[in-house]
Amino acid sequence: MKQKSGLTRFLNCNILREGKIIKEDLWIRDGKIVNPEQVFYDEQQEADVSINCNDLLITPGYIDLQINGGWGVDFSIDTENVEEGVRKVAKELLAHGVTSFCPTMVTSEKEKYSIILPQIKELQGGKHGATVLGVHLEGPFISLAKKGAHSHEFIMNPEKGLESIREVYGPLDNVIIVTLAPELPGALDAIKGLTNLGIKVALGHSSASLADGEEAVKCGANLITHLFNAMLPFHHRDPGLVGLLASTTDKQVFYGIISDGIHTHPAAVRIACRINSEGLVLVSDAVPALGLADGSSTIGPQAVSVDKGRAYIAGTKVLCGSTSALDECIIKFKEATDCSLEYALEAASLHPAKALGIDNCKGRLNYQCDADFVILDPKTLNVLSTWIAGECVYTAPK
Q1: 138 beta partners
Q2: Which of 98, 273, 336, 387 is 20 to 30 Å from 112 by CA-CA measure?
Q3: In tens digits, what is the pLDDT along the chain, a chain of 398 residues?
Q4: Do residues 173 and 113 lie in contact, with contact meaning Cβ atoms separated by under 8 Å?
Q5: Per-position DSSP letters for 114-135, written without gaps between them
Q6: 276 marked among binding-site residues
Q7: DSSP structure class, residue 289
Q8: CA 376 to CA 380: how far, in whole Å?
Q9: Is pTM, for the whole model, over 0.70?
Q10: 235 is in an annotated binding site
Q11: How is residue 41 annotated by DSSP?
Q12: Would you please indicate which residues are annotated as catalytic (active-site) residues?
């Protein structure tokens, strides 16, 4: 009896690889993408399973760096069932092609961090849900003037640098990104300390000048949180954090864009895209109301009202995040910019992977990368199935 090879072959498919959509079979084994030449010529193996894709499109799995919750789950406030809530969102995200994500906590009272943070651990994805990469902490070290939907009573300065960060958050083992305002007292020391721990620092909810932003990048920051939102508007004499897109910094600065058709005008999205195409990262910034009908919801300690898909702080017209998942943002982004299909898909896969420094294993369909991918209808971009580590974890109903 012939020994099984453990190989699965996807044939008659179009693959997004290195910025191009190519007609090529995809081979996977042990959760990784493998080189078919090695299989044919060195190992002389055949696939145990062959899947005919009928000219469908295979793209790297989407990676959402900023999502506050969804389907009624609020990552910043649900202290009683933290792990259950994360699992619920992780499971629901599979239908939207998201294979990895960063659960995001907004500015909260100190006690919330000590309860919630230890319970949101890195977790490999599968049929139970998308991979949890680590927590994104947005606030409380932000500007009062640019607080947006964050609660003003909990906002503070990181005056003692990393020590202030630890005093509020506690252990940082589960943290992957911290958003802060670089102009605050102690912020630059905090950026250096976080970067030395391997935590990515994003600049946002900030009144920072361009000079402040450039100094923060020198100290280790490499991200901007939801560009254009909750920061100084572009000015020709001091372009603020927006100016980092055209700055002469030594390293690539990545920036999140909420392309839900509400948060950012299509012209602003096009400007950012044309100035710094490599740094654009699509994020959902989805709130707990994602997946629910219009009505009342929350984001952290704030009450939220959702009207026609727009989420506002209750009683105001202050936007507090989106109600769109990442797959919808990709479609709206492509419509807004008229960019190539390849670019739109990489903005939600390769670019966030690069921002986190994990593009050696995620965000690509290169050989030896994790077999995290999405099979799409090439015309509508509807998600037909989602795969993590070579396992089908979601199939769209017919």
Answers
A1: 106, 179
A2: 98
A3: 456 778 999 999 999 999 999 999 999 999 999 998 887 777 777 888 999 999 999 999 999 999 999 999 999 998 999 999 999 999 999 999 999 999 999 999 999 999 999 999 999 999 999 999 999 999 999 999 999 889 999 999 999 999 999 999 999 999 999 999 999 999 999 999 999 999 999 999 999 999 999 999 999 999 999 999 999 988 888 999 999 999 988 899 999 999 999 999 999 999 999 999 999 999 999 999 999 999 999 999 989 999 999 999 999 998 889 999 999 999 999 999 999 999 999 999 999 999 999 999 999 999 999 999 999 999 999 999 999 999 999 999 98
A4: no
A5: HHHGGG---B--BTTB-EE--E
A6: no
A7: T
A8: 8
A9: yes
A10: no
A11: I
A12: 285
Radius of gyration for the chain, computed over Cα atoms and rounded to the nearest angstrom? 21
CA distance 231 to 223: 14
Residue 42's identity, in one-letter code, is D
Q: Is there a binding annotation on residue 390?
A: no
Cβ density class 104-138: b for 16+ within 10 Å, e for less: bbbbbeeebbeebbeebeebebeeebbbbbbbbbb
128 annotated ligand binder: no
Element of type H or E holding 342: helix 341-346
Residue 94 near residue 386 (C-beta atoms within 8 A): yes
What gap in Å lies between CA 74 and CA 286, rounded to an integer?
Answer: 10
Residue 320 annotated as part of some ligand binding site: yes
Dig out the tokens for 21 from the structure. Answer: 């959509």
* Tokens encoding 85: 């809530």
Q: Among residues 178, 354, 187, which one has the least CA distance to residue 277?
A: 354
